[in-house]
Amino acid sequence: MELPTINKKRIVSLLKEGKRLDGRGNYEFRNIHIETGISNKAEGSSRVKIGMTDVIVGVKADVQEPYPDHDDEGTMIVGMEFSPAAGERHEIGPPKMDAIEIARVVDRGIRESGFINWKELCIKKGEKVWCINIDIYCINDDGNVLDASALGAIAALKNSRLPVYDKKEESVKFGELTDEGLPLTEHVPYTMTFYKVGEGYLVDPTLEEEDASEARLTFSVSAPKKDKIIHAMQKGGEIPISEVELDVMLDKVEKIYDDNFVKLATN
Amino acid sequence: MITEKEIAEEKTERKLVVPGELIVSGDYLPGDFTRKEGNDIIANRYGLAEISGRFVKIIPVSGVYEPRRGNTVIGRVNDINFSGWIIDIGGPYSAFLSIMESPRFINKMNLDEFASVGDVLDLKINTVKKGGIDLTLKSKGLGKLDGGRLIKINPHKVPRVIGRGGSMINLIKEKTRTDITVGQNGFIWINGDLEGEKKAEEAVNLIAQEATTEGLTDKIEKFLGGKDKWEVH
C-alpha cells in the first residue's frame, strides 16, 4: 500500500518537534549490521542490514581489455537489483529507475573517491586489465537502500581477493583465490543521504519516511586524514533544494560521519 | 502426523503443518486447505491443522488477505472516478466504493470533498464477485479515519490481536490510552499520543509475532507494564 495521508501528516508534524516515529534523532542511523564473506563463489561478498533493510553484495573480478582513453587502468561495473521479495512495490524484470540510480550513485562514490587504485589493476598496458563487477541485490526494502548498498559495496570490496591469473595461458583461474586483496586506498567513501520531509531533514529514513519525503541529497564522504572530503553528490526527488538548505546539510555531514561511520571505519 | 492414540485421547491440539505434510491417515474427510491422497490427508497451506470428528481442516497462518462478505476492512483511496472511489484494501482484487453506498449526500462533481487520494476509510465488504469487491459505508462506526496512523500486520493474525470477545484489543486500548480500529485485512489504525501509539504498535507487532504461543494475554499485559503501572503523560 502506498503511504496514507494520515501517516505522512504524522511524520511531518513530529519532525517539526524534532521527533521521529521510532524515537531516533533526526541524524541518527538505525543499527548497522555487517557480515562479510557470505558467498563462497564470489571473490568478495557482504550482507548489510540497516534496521530491516537488507542488502547482499557480491564482487567478481574478470580480465578484459581496457578502455582506450585509460589504457593502464582497471575498470568497474556496478549493478543493482531489487528482489521481488524486497517489498510489494518491486516486481520481477529488468532493473527499474530506482535500482539503476542506486547503482550509479554507488559507482560514482567509489570511482570519484579513488577508493580503488585503478593503475594497480593493470596487468598489461593496453591489453589486459582487471574488471571489478559489483552486484548489489536488495532482499528487503525498509528505506535507505542507497546508503546500505554503498556500505555493502565497500565491505565486499574490502573482503575481496583477486583470483589466480595464469600469465602463460592469459586466462583467469576462477575458484582459486590469491592472498592478494584488491588495491584499495584510504579514501573510503561512506554514503549518507539527507531526506527533506516537510520542513525538516533526516537521515536513514524508514520506508514510510522515505515515501513522505519530497527531496533527497546524497553525499559520498571519506576521511583519509583528519579532514573530510566530499567526493560525489546526487540530488533526487521532486522539489528543489535551496542554498540555505544545502548549508544546513553540509554543516551536519561531518557530525553524521563521526557519529555513525567512524566506528565502522576502524573495523 | 497426528497419531490414532492422540485422537483417541482427544489430544488433538492444533498442530503446525507445512504444505505437502501428511496430517493424518485413515478414514477422514478433507476440509479447508487440505486434500485427500488415497487414505492420507495432506496439507495445502502453512497453518494449524485441526481435526474435529472425521473432519480435517487448516487455519492458515500466512498468506494474503482473502476478502469475505461482511468483513470490516480498512483501505486507502487509490483513485477516484465518476461514480465512486477505488480503494486499496490489500487484497488480491481491486475494491470499489460506490457513491450510492455513502450514508450521506455527496456531490457527484466533488467526490474528493469526502475522501481524496491517500485518505483512509473504515469500510465493510458488501459483495465479493469475480470482477472485484464492492464496499459500503452504510453501517455503524464506518467512515473516514482522521488523524492517527495506519500500520499493517499479517491478516491471519488479526483474530489474536482482537482476542476473545475483543479482550486483547481492549487491553491495549486501555493501557496505552489510544483509539484502535482493526480491519480484518490486517490494517490497524491507531490514534493517541506519540508514546501511546508507539507502545500500542509494539504490542500489536508482538502479538503478531507470537500468535501461536500460549498465555499471550498475560505476556501482553506484562509487556504493557502490568496494572496501572504504565502511565501516559
Report on this model:
The complex is a heterodimer of chains A (267) and B (233). Chain A has 267 residues and is α+β, with helices and mostly antiparallel strands. Chain A has 5 helices and 12 strands. In chain A, helix 2 crosses helix 3. The two termini of chain A are 39 Å apart. Chain B has 3 domains: 4-60, Beta Barrel (OB fold (Dihydrolipoamide Acetyltransferase, E2P)); 72-144, OB fold (Dihydrolipoamide Acetyltransferase, E2P), CATH 2.40.50; 149-223, Ribosomal Protein S8, Chain: A, domain 1. A 5-stranded mixed β-barrel of chain B has the order 8-9-10-12-11. A 4-stranded mixed beta sheet of chain B has the order 1-6-7-3, with no helix packed on it. In chain B, strands 2-5-4 form a 3-stranded antiparallel beta sheet, with no helix packed on it. At the A-B interface, helix 1 of A face strand 14 of B.
What is the gist of this entry?
The complex is a heterodimer of chains A (267) and B (233). Chain A has 267 residues and is an alpha+beta fold.
Identify the CATH homologous superfamily of the largest domain in chain B.
K Homology domain, type 1
Secondary structure tally, helices of chain A: 5
Oligomer: heterodimer
At the first level of CATH, what is the class of chain A? Alpha Beta
Strand order of the largest sheet of chain B: 8-9-10-12-11
Q: What is the CATH architecture term of chain A? A: 2-Layer Sandwich
The overall pLDDT average of chain B reads 85
| CATH fold assignment of the largest domain in chain B | Ribosomal Protein S8, Chain: A, domain 1
Number of domains of chain A: 1
Rg of chain B (CA only): 21 Å
What share of residues of chain A is helical? Answer: 25-40%
Give the class of chain B from helix and strand content and strand pairing: alpha+beta
The residue ranges of chain B in which pLDDT falls below 50 over 5 or more consecutive positions are none
Mean pLDDT of chain A: 91
Contiguous low-pLDDT stretches of chain A (5 residues minimum) are: none
Number of helices of chain B: 5
- Percentage of residues in strands of chain B: 25-35%
**Order of SSEs of chain A:** HEEEEHEEHEEEEHEEH
The shape of chain B, in one word, is flat
